[in-house]
Amino acid sequence: MQDFEIYVLGEEYRIVFDDTIVEHGDCNPEKKIIKINPDSEDVQSTIFHEILHAILYQSGQHYNLGDETAEGVVRALEHGLMQLDLIREFSLEESIQHNSDSEDDCEAVRDFRESNTGKHNDK
């Protein structure tokens, strides 16, 4: 499997396949890296799970929820959404090729983050 980049709420994340990690996957919001163990039972589900973590981090909601609650929310969303045929038919390759965010979208995300977390990000 080849590493690739995606955008999560206007921030570029690198998806890296790493068979040395113990977990199925790991999201590092500071480095903007999502590591996926290619030997996981369901790689697509694991990628989706870690992207959901990235969404919570980028929106600022992970910090409001705390680790345990955030993991519960991510698992609930992952399991619920992965049951939908729409998500199962989702092609990562198509997403990578067509994934782009406008500057307006990025500004909207920063505004949302500031209003919901009280944190200001002066990029």
Task: Describe this protein with a few key phrases.
single chain, 123 residues, alpha+beta, Arc Repressor Mutant, subunit A, 4-stranded mixed sheet, 6 helices, globular
If you had to describe this structure to a student in words, what would you say it looks like?
The protein has helices spanning 43-59, 61-65, 67-82, 85-88, 92-98, 103-117, and strands at residues 4-8, 11-17, 25-28, 33-36. It is an alpha+beta fold and 123 residues long. It has a single domain (4-100), classed as Arc Repressor Mutant, subunit A (Orthogonal Bundle). The chain has a 4-stranded mixed β-sheet with strand order 1-2-4-3, covered by helices on one side. A hairpin with a 2-residue loop joins strand 1 and strand 2. The chain is globular and about 35 Å long.
Compact description:
The chain has 123 residues and is an alpha+beta fold.
CATH topology: Arc Repressor Mutant, subunit A
Shape-level CATH architecture: Orthogonal Bundle
What global shape is seen?
globular
Strand order of the largest sheet: 1-2-4-3
Biggest sheet features: 4 strands, mixed
Q: What's the structural domain tally?
A: 1
Strand portion? 15-25%
Which structural class should the secondary elements be placed in? alpha+beta
Q: What oligomerization state is this entry in? A: single chain
Share of helix among residues? Answer: 40-55%
* Strand runs, count: 4
Distance between the termini: 33 Å
CATH class: Mainly Alpha
Radius of gyration: 15 Å
Give unreliable regions as ranges. 96-105, 116-123
- SSE string, helices as H and strands as E: EEEEHHHHHH
- How confident overall, as mean pLDDT? 79
